[in-house]
Design goal:
heterodimer; A: mainly alpha; 12 helices; B: alpha/beta; Rossmann fold; binds adenosine-5'-triphosphate; binds magnesium ion
Chain lengths: 300, 268
């Protein structure tokens, strides 16, 4: 049981980078960035190929750079070329499928069971908990850096772009540029997440990123239920905690013999409910009020 | 200071919705001018401001600010020099960000190079913001870290005014910026406007639906109608002008009554 929890936490920390990315693109910039699915696999693919070539660290660095580039493509499509933002993400994601296959040498999966990776490199230092330590350090460093970044001038400008676009151009900030920077940073995080996952499970597969945007959102939303919303500190905490809780829930579900096939279905349901919640609540209040008023006047 | 030369703009040209919003508008402002702008609904006042601020490129004509042709400059580049306030107090501030973060964004306009993109809000910036907020007299100086979304419309508009003038702009455009506020708050924001504009000697254009305050504030008054400037008042003529006389003049020039739904309400 403890082992199950530990591996859930390890995976949670790795996937938390996607939740952080979505905190930036979805919560902060207000863009549902579907590039995420493609970028995640891109990170896996590059990392796997580089690990097989004996350069696991370089693999992480390249995955970050490639992720940022993918985000940049989506951003240019939507800010410069007038492609609606959801479609821009879908276009990039679709294009990335071929790129990802190419990055894995035209194989749909790549095992790298014996090669050294960033986790095994740390084994000597941290003993048996090495995977947890490495994953945790990556999550913590990314969360702290993102939190600090959002407080800088550049970060403030990105947040304002998502909050009130009119006001941004009135403050001599170029909103298109801010959207681009935001999407690059978010996809860099997603790429790193994929890269870490591939080395963690010693395996890359062309389908690993499928549904990642929904899983990331589900994690973020779960985290927001736990720590609440409002403020940057809460936001990045929610991303990390949510991702870990999400993985624990999945692990528990699997160990109680729930069919693994249904995991993505439940993620989709969680996201749908969480996003629909405010609207449904408003409707319910409206009908309650209408009934109350109707009663009141019926009495007269 | 500001030269608008033969600017025209037609919306939806060639369709049934074609609308000539500006027709050959020319206007010259000297440094320190405070122009009040009045006219019927749909006269083109806001469209003129949008043209100056860079919301669109005019179909013809050019706009020169302080010797520089800005006709093709994108809006965010112009906002270094042009501040703008709208009727809607929600437009000028980012609600989920704190008061100090909003001010920090406005302050970006000042320090083009200094500090760098990764600099954060420093204690000395906070002191400066607090001192500036105190001049509004709304107690906002003690609420630096609260989200702006918690403020009232009047407080937000006063904050927007402060943000637009934190770095003295070359030109300030006020588009009925007190119209959505309750009378007492509107009065207060207008007072603040007067104070800031005089203290910093800002060249300013203000749209108002209140004719008497249009005549009382500033040094020039411009009447627009149907996308054109109908007449302009300044100097002696303006000092002696009354609301009744101005309405008569409008009718005489356009053969119409001045129909501004908001204007009728506020005519004393
Ligand atoms: N983006 C646009 N597309 C089409 N028509 C527009 C657009 N903006 C303004 N117009 C039209 O141009 C005309 C001038 O509008 P404008 O907003 O400048 O008037 P205004 O003088 O500010 O009026 P008000 O006192 O009501 O604010 C109006 O007929 C308006 O319908
Ligand atoms: Mg208007």
């Amino acid at each position: 049981m403890l082992l199950v929890l530990r591996s859930a936490a390890e995976q949670g920390f790795i996937y938390s980078l996607v939740a952080l990315a979505l905190y930036l693109s979805y919560r902060t910039l207000d863009i549902a960035d579907l590039t995420t699915d493609g970028t995640f696999t891109l990170g896996c693919a590059i990392s796997a190929t580089m690990t097989l070539a004996g350069h696991p660290l370089l693999g992480l660095v390249l995955a970050i750079a490639a992720g940022a580039a993918a985000g940049g493509v989506t951003a240019v499509l939507q800010t410069k070329l007038g492609v609606p933002s959801i479609l821009a993400g879908i276009i990039t994601m679709t294009g990335l499928y071929s790129v990802n296959l190419a990055a894995m040498g035209s194989k749909s999966n790549l095992p790298m069971l014996k090669e050294e990776n960033v986790f095994s490199m740390a084994q000597a230092l941290f003993g048996s908990a090495y995977k947890l330590v490495v994953a945790g350090v990556f999550a913590a460093v990314c969360a702290v850096l993102l939190g600090l970044f959002l407080r800088t001038r550049l970060g403030l400008s990105i947040r304002a772009t998502g909050d009130n676009r009119d006001m941004v151009s009135a403050s001599s900030i170029n909103p298109a540029l801010m959207t681009t920077v935001g999407l690059c940073v978010a996809n860099a995080l997603t790429g790193l997440s994929g890269a870490l996952l591939a080395q963690y499970q010693k395996f890359s597969d062309i389908g690993l990123g499928t549904g990642m945007v929904v899983i990331g959102l589900a994690s973020l939303i779960i985290g927001e239920v736990v720590v609440g919303r409002g403020g940057i500190l809460r936001g990045v905490l929610a991303a990390v905690i949510g991702a870990v809780v999400y993985r624990i829930i999945i692990a528990l579900a699997l160990s109680s013999s729930v069919d693994a096939n249904w995991i993505k279905f439940f993620s989709a349901v969680i996201v749908a409910i969480a996003i629909a919640y405010p609207t449904v609540k408003e409707k319910v209040l409206f009908y309650q009020k209408r009934r109350r008023e109707a009663k009141k006047y019926a009495q007269h | 200071m500001l030269s608008i030369e033969h600017v025209s703009k037609t919306f939806n040209p060639g369709t049934v919705n074609e609308k000539k919003a500006l027709e050959d508008v020319s206007l010259h402002l000297e440094r320190g001018d405070f122009v009040t702008l009045i006219g019927s609904n749909g006269a083109g006042k806001s469209t003129l401001f949008t043209a100056i601020a860079g919301g669109f490129v005019p179909d013809s004509g050019r706009i020169v600010l302080d010797g520089r042709d800005i006709t093709f400059l994108p809006d965010y580049r112009r906002s270094r020099e042009i501040g703008r306030l709208f009727q809607d107090p929600l437009k000028g501030t980012a609600p989920r960000m704190t008061i100090e973060e909003n001010l920090a964004l406005a302050y970006l306009r000042a320090s083009k190079g200094g500090g760098g993109i990764f600099s954060t809000i420093k204690a000395k910036d906070r002191d400066f913001f607090r001192e500036k907020l105190a001049t509004l007299g709304l107690g906002l100086e003690n609420r630096l870290t609260q989200p702006v979304g918690l403020l009232s419309g009047g407080q937000r508009q006063a904050l927007t005014l402060l943000m637009a003038t934190l770095v003295t702009p070359k030109l300030l455009l006020l588009d009925e910026h007190t119209a959505a506020l309750d009378p007492a708050t509107a009065e207060k924001v207008l007072e603040l406007t007067k104070k800031i504009v005089t203290q910093q000697n800002i060249t300013c254009m203000m749209v108002t639906h209140n004719i008497s305050s249009a005549l009382e504030l500033g040094n020039r008054t411009i009447m627009m109608d149907g996308g054109r400037i109908v007449f302009e008042l300044s100097g002696e003529e303006r000092r002696n002008m009354t609301v009744e006389e101005l309405l008569r003049r409008f009718k005489q020039q356009t053969n119409r009554q001045l129909d501004n739904d908001r204007m009728l309400l506020t005519r004393e």
